[in-house]
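Subject: for your reference before the review

Hello V.,

The reviewers asked for a structural picture of the protein, and I figured it would be easier to keep everything in one thread rather than splitting it across files. Below is the amino acid sequence we used in the manuscript, unchanged from the supplementary table.
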Amino acid sequence: MLHSRMLEAAGVSPGWLAVAAAGVAVVAYFLGCFNGAVVVSRYILRDDIRDHGSGNAGLTNFYRVFGGPLTAVVILSDAVKAVLAVLFAMFIAGRLSPELMTLAQYWAGTFCMIGHMYPCTFQFRGGKGVLSGSAVAIMIGIGGGGVLPSWTIPVVLWGGFLILAVATKYISLGSCWGGASFIVMSWLVYRDPLILALSAVMGGLLLWKHRGNMVRIVKGTESKFAFHKGSQSKKGGAETPPPEADPPQEAGSEGEKP
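And here is what came back from the structure prediction:
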């Protein structure tokens, strides 16, 4: 096990620690499995989001395909499940030792994101974890911090995301900034090997999920974000081309009016 000053300061017996960790992991994972984009598209719209657009069960693809007020439902569900997972972990940690609070936040966030990305309830085909991961970062930012204040984590993450997304209109570029900066800032704030490992899992998975986007950005084929009402696009991200106009009739052809 990685050395952690937080675990040492907690002084909790290994048995109780293992039980608590397993319980939090299971609850956080299954909360993560509640994928807002899949639930809304399959059970409300009766049209699985994973069969359209990029095939990703995430907020950006849902908005591009369907648009409309149901996008807010996806945002709310993916953010709330992450908040609930972290709150549950904090509740358990508070009963064991306050020293475990930060570790519990990272632990729950990790398994919630794994559940979101690889949900056993939806054939392990989930989203990319941007919204849920951002909610986890905000929850972590509420804590006291270590070497630096913990609020610097969501500020750097969200600040860089917004700047890159607005400047380039590439949501994926801002998302990759979020994943990478989360790892770096977690280390700068806490300087704890176990925290670094958990942040690397979360940030690393987010970057891995966006590897295709990064390739398309380099090639110049990545779609830029734009506000619209949504359309049923074909799987693969290519929009349905407009119907071709009828070719003009030549003078003197059959059926031409004088």
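For the response letter, the relevant points are probably these. Residues 70-96 form the longest helix (27 residues). The CA atoms of residues 54 and 220 lie 16 Å apart.

Happy to draft the paragraph if you're swamped.

O.
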